[in-house]
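B., you asked whether I could sanity-check this one before it goes into the benchmark set. Here's the sequence:
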Amino acid sequence: MPSQGLQQVQKLKQSLVLAPQLRQSLKILQVPALELRSVILEELQGNPVLEELSNNDISLEDETAKQRDGDEPPEADDEPGDNGRLEFSDDFSVLRKLGEDWSEHMRQESGEIEYSSEDARRRQHFFDSLTGDTSLQESLMEQARMTESDPEILKALEYLIGSLDDKGFLTASVSDIALMAGVSLKKTQNAAALIKTLEPGGIGAADIRECLLIQLRHAGRGNRLEATIIRDHWDLLLRRRLPDIARKTGASAEEVREAVDEIRKLDPAPGRNFSDDANRVIEPDVTVERDDNGEWNIILESDYIPRLRLSPQYKEMLAKGVLKGKDREYVQEKFRSGRFLISSIEQRQQTIEKITREILRKQRDFFEHGRSQLRPLTMSQVADAVGVHETTVSRAIASKYIRTPHGVFEFKYFFTPGYAGSDGQSVSNTTVKERIARIIDAEPPQKPYSDAAIVKMLEEDGIKIARRTVAKYREELGILPTNLRRRYD
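And here's what the prediction gave me:
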């Protein structure tokens, strides 16, 4: 019988561990220019040998080039020079402190203007005054707290709000949410009823039918003909059987048409008004523009990226042997970390430029003529052309935007699957969506095109696509089905 109890077992295994510097390099590659400044400033605060340059100082690229040419800080065994020796005490623990003593020392060395506590308060007030867009979840919880004080109902409400989909519909059953929240079914039902009273109207509904009815109740029209049609004759409405609706409701044909027009004005997806991208300020990381000679130029955004160099003061201190022992090792480690940061920033900019240049080469028709000429493109194709791994391309384009003659687009906009046209050319699914939108925009209001009719029109343009795919793209574009697009004059 094998013995039971605790045992020590030694075994060998391989695992992949990312070094701190590599993680920092990946982070620098992934963040957009506006966020990159915060990352660099954070590193500046913790590394005394890094300095931010003014416009008149040597550039980051020049500093990097000098480092490649061998301008390295001396190693620990270098002898200090005899001339112009700097007078510092041997106890240099102030470098590791990086607090008030360090700030005071740098002010004395460089003549920096005093930064008062009043300045600090004004700066903090500025950051505290910055506001962002309110999400759907935040808006709903804020409304709920104004009308409900029961903590259990509010807890259930948090779970309900977390179960809403992008349209604002409730995607889970109330009983399941009660179990997840650890709240009684009765109070969870009260929370579900509460959410339907909040704005925007229609939030928390189980489907589009209930969503429209909630909006009518919010508008005080819960007993009007529109509500009766949705509640009692939904199937007839979807099939546009207006004469049958008139006969069953006892209303005239004109009254039914007016009611249907009012239903069309309701929002079938109220949650989309709070999408993550709504009303967000975007600063492109790259601009692609044509010069006076007709050549395409790529301009990287660098205004928000601090320009860095390694402190010449600390280079001199290392050269002259002012620092000893652990203090010297500490400063040398900070030099290595600073060089790696500068190199990572330069590598980031080069990678983004190479990816942009390859996108420009592959999507030249788009830059020349617009969205209708967008071609299918995958990240693996760009990665092979640039000479990096596909995951590097994914990180490099994450949350980044490019300014083009046709507007500002997210980088991932240019990476789409596609379809083969009759002429042998590939067409991206984004281009197909654009064509579907144009077809529907030009359709006669009294007789809108069905999905099957749109399929035939696309086939005439050389694009073979299934009807269910047209329906999918139409829904992604937020376009209603045929029977709800029909208008009566």
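One thing to flag: The chain has 24 helices and eight strands. Otherwise nothing jumped out at me.
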